[in-house]
Amino acid sequence: MVHIRVILLEPIYGGNIGAVARVMMNFGFRDLVLVNPPPIDDEARAFASNAIALLESARICERLEDATLDSNLLVGTTSKAGLTENRHVRMPVFSPKELKRKLEGKKGIVSLIFGRESSGLRVDELSRCDLIAVIPASAEYPVMNLSHAVAIFLYELQDLRPGSYPLAGRLDLDLLYEHIHEFLHKIPYPPHKREKTSLMIRRILGRAELTGREVQTLRGILKKAEIAIEGGERSKG
């Protein structure tokens, strides 16, 4: 079945951390990871209410990479959806309801990543994610309180239908994305398009929810293509 993890990246206010612990308890979730948080103070405990044990059991990491090592799918949350098809960092986006439909019947650890209260997730952090999710709030003021945003996602995901479709591991996926990036440097592909194309492919594959076997198949195809390219270059020389 899908295991939901909530990751707060560099949260600023202890009260918000405590409030997130409380809404996690409300909807039956227990896996909270804090990346570079402030000290867990009395305000955080007060906002946590009866979820103090969950708050104090939260795993603390220094880097986002450490928080996601065993995650199968990374979902970056943002209040700013991309406006055009060329803005692959924030497109395509999924609402909490759409995210639930994508996760139905899957098996693995899904990390919901929430950014700083002041500025959210940076472009480089969103670029690491497999999927991007946005709460369809008012266009006049789409930025929500951190704990409110977490609550909306967890409300939608609390009754996910369990399944046995195994999502690929983080290491396998990262190796595939790195391999694609390297491959674009080995073929006559326009240098100024490589980064955008790498991100586009990451978004495509993120939506595909690959299994480990599918990842290995794709990497095998890339290796065969690299061998063919190297063979053709040698024959020309």
Automatic annotation (TrEMBL):
It comes from Candidatus Syntropharchaeum butanivorans. It holds the Pfam family SpoU_methylase. Gene3D superfamilies: 1.10.8.590, 3.40.1280.10. GO terms for molecular function: RNA binding; RNA methyltransferase activity. Transmembrane segments: none annotated. The keyword Chaperone does not apply. Residues 4-155 form the tRNA/rRNA methyltransferase SpoU type domain. GO terms for biological process: tRNA nucleoside ribose methylation. Coiled coil: none annotated. One of its GO terms (cellular component) is cytosol. Belongs to the class IV-like SAM-binding methyltransferase superfamily. RNA methyltransferase TrmH family. The keyword Transferase applies. This is RNA methyltransferase, TrmH family, group 1.
